[in-house]
């Protein structure tokens, strides 16, 4: 094979159809010269109807080593030429001129080559032919003036832009401004003069051209400037096909890059022969590595902070590659410098083989799987916890909450619920609330298990919920307390929200809790609210506003100290208990009362502002106390009344006013009631 140092691109001509002038190929510089694109002329020359898997198969074997070495010497953007034999459709080797350019060199893949092939027999025409018109490219000579005035152009030059000499003359085609889009001409002219000013007399341009019909094409212009007469001699090649292929390749590469970025995955290439790892800059920065790392995996084990529990998995991942296992997967915990913490990564690889079937490269993809790993742990933890607790449960549900599908139902109530009421969470909740839940708690039970509400809470970050409620006893005699505990987690295996519900009998513990709560809120002797509880409950009512009217009443047993001293403390306690019972019997359900201390009681009547009604109700109470029959003389009380909001808006204000009214009642001789004025 011979290598030329001059560049020639060839354009199709109809004069000798048996010869190849414009074969264009885009292929990888790998062992097979894997084609990405072959234009129709080259496909026809090779006798192909579909894109072959190897372009090397259509070249003479003895030429291939030198041709591949020639390709490896190409620098990005450089165009060079070589003589090479191609086998045509008849099986005959044909010498061609291969004009090649390296258009891209990805870090993790072979270089991409764009090549134009032309039959060398065309170059051996006799000198009697007009050389310029027979050269299969546009040749021109122009003045370096404002419009690049044409001094000469061959037939191929005019044909490139859709003209003949005759149509060019008729159209006034006398300068290059006519064939360059207006928006590009200034830039092209500036590039030409820039090269000349810098002393670069041989140079190349790539720019858009404009045909006679207004269509756009791309051309490569190889120029030689002659300073003696300020002229530019050049050759023009139509590279529209090449530009189209480059654009398609660029879009394809960009699509792959975006797809990887959107999937949060990184890609690397591992050379099995040299044990070298090639990564993108972004991926290397993530792991605190270089873009090219040699002696992998040993150097990585020494240089990176890999968690001890996953070191063996990391080494096994690479040893499987080197052993020729086609694919592999691992999960590794490594220190991420940019996050300043340990992070879980999942990695997969696939091997790439040479033509001889030898594994030469592994393509590795990996991504941050910390969140997925944590979800798996959470899933296993909660599954184990619920497994232990559900054995004696009232009910245990497992739902795919995203799809609203019941997957597991266990517990005491399962056999009591019809199958058609177990299909969805809503159906199951409705049946359960109607048949097992106390009527007063059904509304909150249905709301708690509302699927839409649960999904929204999960979206907001809530994973655990509980609800205490009352359920009907199977025997029908009363109710018992139960608690529903709900756990919602992301299932890392199916990408759905998993819903676990465990309902347990908490009656004993709940009743103990309520009893303790009652004891903390009530007076131990009378069972009425104590002072602290009274103040808290009354404060909640008053804070709701002044739209309603209420009455705060302080009641004091007349001569209680004397009675206590005469009859003893036990008798005094009995009197206090009886007074408390009378208060409970005489008050409405929405009123409440309590013992402030000693023989002093407080009553709070809600929604009453008519003093006559208040007086009547209190007189009923006084009458009841008079007839208790505990003492020889009737038991009487003194009462002070304050009204909300006219006498005050806070507990302390109302208490002071009612206490003042009570004082006036005692001054008036006791056994009476006084409204604060």
From TrEMBL:
Residues 548-677 form the GGDEF domain. PROSITE patterns: GGDEF. Gene3D superfamilies: 3.30.70.270, PAS domain. Transmembrane segments: none annotated. SMART domains: GGDEF. It comes from the Bacteria. This is Sensor domain-containing diguanylate cyclase.
